[in-house]
Amino acid sequence: MTGDVIALESVYAAAERVAGRLHRTPMVEAETLNERFGGRFTLKAELFQKTGSYKVRGILNKVLTLTADERARGVITLSAGNAAGSLAWAARAAGIPATVVMPAGAVPAKVEAARAYGAEVVLAEGDLLAAYEGLRDERDLTAVHPFDDPEVIAGAGTVGLELVADRPDLDTVLVPIGGGGLISGVSLVIKRLLPSARVIGIEPIGADVVSRSLASGIPEKLPTARSVADGLAAPMCGVHTLAHIQQYVDEVVRVSEESLVEATRLVMSRTKLALEPAAAAPFAALLEGAITLRPGALTACVISGGNLDVTTVLTS
Amino acid sequence: MTGDVIALESVYAAAERVAGRLHRTPMVEAETLNERFGGRFTLKAELFQKTGSYKVRGILNKVLTLTADERARGVITLSAGNAAGSLAWAARAAGIPATVVMPAGAVPAKVEAARAYGAEVVLAEGDLLAAYEGLRDERDLTAVHPFDDPEVIAGAGTVGLELVADRPDLDTVLVPIGGGGLISGVSLVIKRLLPSARVIGIEPIGADVVSRSLASGIPEKLPTARSVADGLAAPMCGVHTLAHIQQYVDEVVRVSEESLVEATRLVMSRTKLALEPAAAAPFAALLEGAITLRPGALTACVISGGNLDVTTVLTS
User: In what residue span(s) does the Tryptophan synthase beta chain-like PALP domain sit (chains A, B) (predicted)?
Assistant: First the structure.
């Protein structure tokens, strides 16, 4: 099974479909990061997006393309967090019931957010994917994959459209990678509209399913995927996402847990953005010296979300 | 000894003096806080100010009004943190040497920031005020009080000018109180320009020197002033700040440490702003039910700074 890449027109259609329902997030300049890393950075602040993450772009787009019958059956997804909150929010907006399967160890605030938006949350102790597939089939629910779906990828691509519109001078885009949905949409748009720009993805060493899939050429699964960047701990790569990453992404870099923690604190202290560790992945790679910046060139980093576990803040 | 209130013209002069050197910070809307507290809130995002705090407004204004002789002697201040970083930054901008006396328990990032901006940091184990006065006299340095100075208050007042310009429909302004510099400048401006608006201050129970000073009618000192909101743990009220607060502030509310921690986490999770606990004080008061909002009215909260101790983030 191989996936086809989506058409740029699908991203334009997604942008039109979600317009007015989501925020057009700002680009944030960060002089102190420029000094620290010797580059020129601009941050796409998706942590200010509805539900606190870019994820809602793709999920809402998908929900809005469902047929009346698919909606009537109710929707289900599996997620460590941000897709759960996004589906709960999008389903509520569409007036349909949502079920989300989350790992038992998910960040409590993400579980609460999904519940607060009205979803039924099912916490899975063991195999997340098996729990999700079982429930989906048993209840005949409409599956909304958290990333491996053309409409979800098209929605994520709207981040790329805004990047290009706001900073057509960008040279490099750094994108966190979980299952690859965000970078699939963004890289497609960047390579079509700004072909000379680089797109580099970053994933945790402990959840490096995309690197493994690129090496083997097929979408891999991981028995366990763990990271402090819970938003990046996808246990599988997608058919569709692998196809996009193979075609459009220049490089995928793996980062350590230590770098992710340090990067989160660094970016938070310098920018005053309460980003989640997934969103700091580009700076983890920079801390490790894994990315070479082109002198004077503009680097855009997608700050993918801000659903941080705040119960750790001010503990001592 | 009593202090006179400053003239509104001093605030306009400060605004002109610092223009172009500091950020005009944005107002941030926060729909989820509106839902949580049943009000209409707008946040003055001073955490995005240069040095990460409103404090630099007053300190820079003061430094820019010093005589050539006062500058040549070098400047000194005492601070739990934000005035230290602000003076270090402003002195560097003015090309003069700075010394800052900080408590030994200051947030490490605040100490590092002062050093990074080029100041000599002296950590005081015991009486902060005594250490500061001793060093000031011994070295014949020019004193820059962190809050109890007409020019520092005038600089803080520029926050009020921007509030009025951006949201002339505001009904209530909630302002964190340490030694009272911020609320002195802001309340003066609000009461002169929008006389029907309320100004309410919030200070920690463990550092309630302004409440005590209002009760006694003279500027009090505290043997110890401790709070998780380190930015509010001033051990003394000022002569000038007390005069402004007596004349212009409607009410001062005291909040618990527990509420400050809860409010910091709540506001961070809802707004994705990495605010420091001092800045969350208005929401601590709201959590305690200590402030009654007028139905439908707009409440502005000054998010005074973002120099959070990020080493606590992602610990578990």
Answer: 23-305
